[in-house]
Amino acid sequence: MSAALPPLPARAVSALREGRTIDAIKAVREVEGLDLKGAQVRVEAYLAADPALQKRLAERQRELRKRLIGWVLVVDAVILAALAAWWFSR
């Protein structure tokens, strides 16, 4: 990482490692007192200077998307089953 960039708050770095970019931005806003745009620019600059963290973030976000898709499919199946039960019980 570039020496010119000050480190992010530990909470923000932890959030980025877990794939939670929005939480990282919130943490920077709270700790450093920046506005939304300023915090977003800080997080993006930090990510741009750390390719390993970029890769980890992208992988984690893919995992989270897969999990979300799985939950959506389960919920859809439950809703369809409930609708079918209702329809055939009429």
The total of helices stands at 4
Shape: elongated
Give the topology string: H per helix, E per strand. HHHH
Report the helical percentage: over 70%
Spatial gap, N to C terminus: 65 Å
Total number of beta strands: 0
Determine Rg (CA atoms, Å): 20 Å
The count of domains is 1
| Estimated share of beta-strand residues | under 5%
> pLDDT under 50 segments (min length 5)?
none
Which class do the helix and strand fractions yield? Answer: mainly alpha
Biggest pleated-sheet summary: none
Q: Return the average pLDDT rounded to an integer.
A: 91
Task: Report on the architecture of this protein.
The chain has one domain (10-88). It is mostly helical. The protein has helices spanning 10-17, 21-32, 36-48, 51-88. The chain is elongated. It is built from four helices and no strands. The mean pLDDT is 91.
Keyphrases for this structure?
mainly alpha; 4 helices
Question: How would you summarize what this structure contains?
Answer:
The chain contains four helices and no strands. The protein has helices at 10-17, 21-32, 36-48, 51-88.
